[in-house]
Automatic annotation (TrEMBL):
Belongs to the FAD-dependent oxidoreductase 2 family. FRD/SDH subfamily. Keywords: FAD, Flavoprotein, Oxidoreductase, Signal. Residues 1-26 form the signal peptide. Gene3D superfamilies: FAD/NAD(P)-binding domain (3.50.50.60), Succinate dehydrogenase/fumarate reductase flavoprotein, catalytic domain (3.90.700.10). It comes from the Bacteria. This is Fumarate reductase flavoprotein subunit. Residues 41-451 form the FAD-dependent oxidoreductase 2 FAD-binding domain. InterPro entries: FAD-dep_OxRdtase_2_FAD-bd, FAD-oxidoreductase_2, FAD/NAD-bd_sf, Flavocytochrome_c, Succ_DH/fumarate_Rdtase_cat_sf.
């Protein structure tokens, strides 16, 4: 069984207790009604960032809202997010005297997507980013710009990024008596009448029933905890690990939308973290630019790749090895760099005075690893790595790495109103989508923090359009 890192579980437990302390009765988990059908103006499926924003926005306008979440707590992958929010031309930028314009934001997002991003959706995203930031501040959250070198990246001044955001969203949801949150309740099928989505079948603790609604908003996340689906859409990622996700994102919304004729976009594209374990991501610089001398070896102690290749290619190369596993090997020179110490601390890396001792601690063949490192230090490289460096300065460090899916780039196609589209580009009436369930927004890559932004921007747009605002 694929395990979710203990750190993520602890975060979920912690945030659940915090949310319970600040949640009003209206949004406390409600028992399922068995076979009794119920009705709402808006049904939101999924209780991560996008789902909570959608539900809050609809409830603020006085309509009856039901949010169903299959997990025992809200939060989705937002709860473990460590990227803050990306926004442009905010008051924070003005007060700090640091420039990051809407056009800067647009250009960066398009370029990161390798030309595959939906330009119309990106334009909507960036032009609404300042308002999204203002809304977060209105919830009581406090932010700062990460650094003048990264003016796009706005991070909380205190607390865990994602956990604090979910805590604030849940507190806001609790203010609305017309918003009901049903936990441990999984949507299984969208219901249509004459081509219009009019509700969904759900399964709760009391059995299966129907929630009728004038509009349904999908906010179920991506495929990060559905490795079989990932491999189906992109065989290069067969055997991908699930170190960087919570249990919930298993493609439910994508499957339900496809079943009613939704267009899917970029389903073969995923943002991978080739270097990860224990729920942590290690920056690739430890085996490339800053790290210089770091290398990767497989379970046989062999190098198998140019470690400086693009991250998505690196992930697929590691997954081709035994057990889809590799070890990061570097010396004290790398350890003393900016990311070296962080990597060892987060990855619970092992340390040894010799390569042979390091191999023994990692369960590798000492003679084989020593030969591999010696060959690398001698400049013998069959993979044409441009920057070689050396692994020569004791002590030496080793960390197990399990390539993991970090973000699903593909998903359901939407328009600027967050309406789900059919294959021919026409809308599926009554059906909306926001968050990671959406595909085609970013193309082949995503700017860190844009995910939080699109939860807010398209979550609000979906809710407002769904109720005619």
């Amino acid at each position: 069984m694929r395990r979710i890192a203990m750190t993520m579980v602890l975060i979920l437990v912690l945030i659940t207790s915090m949310l319970a302390a600040c949640t009003a009765p209206a949004s406390q988990p409600q028992p399922a009604q068995g076979n009794e059908d119920i009705t709402a103006d808006v049904l939101v499926i999924g209780g991560g960032g996008a789902g909570l924003v959608s539900a809050i926005t609809a409830a603020e306008n006085g309509v009856k809202v039901i949010l169903v979440e299959k997990m025992p707590a809200v939060g989705g992958n937002t709860i473990i997010s460590a990227t803050g929010i990306t926004a442009s031309d905010t008051q924070l930028h003005k007060d700090s005297g640091i420039s990051f314009t809407v056009e800067d934001h647009y250009k960066r997002t398009i370029e990161t997507g390798k030309g595959l991003a939906d330009e119309k959706l990106v334009r909507v995203l960036v032009e609404n980013s300042s308002a999204a930031y203002d809304w977060l501040v209105s919830l009581g959250l406090s932010y700062k710009i990460q650094s003048p070198e990264e003016p796009f990246w706005i991070v909380p001044t205190e607390g865990h990024y994602g956990a604090e955001l979910v805590k604030a969203l849940q507190a806001e949801a609790g203010k609305h008596k017309n918003l009901e949150i049903k936990l441990n309740t999984k949507a299984t099928e969208l219901i249509t009448e004459e081509g219009k989505v009019v509700g969904a079948k759900v399964e709760g603790q009391g059995g299966e029933y129907v929630i009728n609604a004038k509009a349904v908003i999908l906010a179920t996340g991506g495929l990060n905890n559905a490795p079989e689906m990932i491999a189906e859409y992109n065989p290069n990622y067969k055997g991908v690990h699930t170190e960087m996700t919570t249990p919930g994102p298993t493609g439910d919304g994508i499957k339900m939308a496809a079943a009613v004729g939704a267009q899917l976009r970029h389903m073969d594209l995923f943002q991978m973290r080739p270097l990860s374990s224990n729920g942590n991501w290690y920056k690739e610089v430890v085996i490339s630019e800053e790290g210089k001398g770091g290398i990767l070896v497989n379970l046989d102690g062999d190098r198998f790749v140019d470690e400086t290749m693009k991250t998505w290619d690196l992930a697929s190369e590691i997954l081709k090895q035994k057990e889809g596993t590799a070890y990061i090997i570097f010396d004290n020179d790398v350890y003393e760099t900016k990311e070296g110490k962080k990597t060892v601390e987060k990855g619970k890396g092992v340390k040894a005075d010799t390569i042979e001792e390091l191999a023994a601690q990692l369960g590798l063949d000492p003679a084989k690893l020593k030969a591999t490192v010696d060959a690398y230090n001698a400049g013998q490289d069959p993979f044409n790595r441009k920057a070689m460096g050396k692994v020569t300065t004791a002590p030496f460090y080793g960390i197990k790495t399990l390539p993991s899916s970090h973000y699903t780039m593909g998903g359901v196609a939407i328009n600027e109103n967050a309406q789900v589209l059919k294959e021919d580009g026409s809308v599926i009436e009554g059906l909306y989508a926001a968050g990671e369930v959406v595909g085609g927004l970013y193309g082949a890559g995503r700017v860190a923090g844009n995910n939080t932004l699109d939860d807010i921007v398209f979550g609000k747009i979906a809710a407002k359009h769904a109720i005619g605002k």
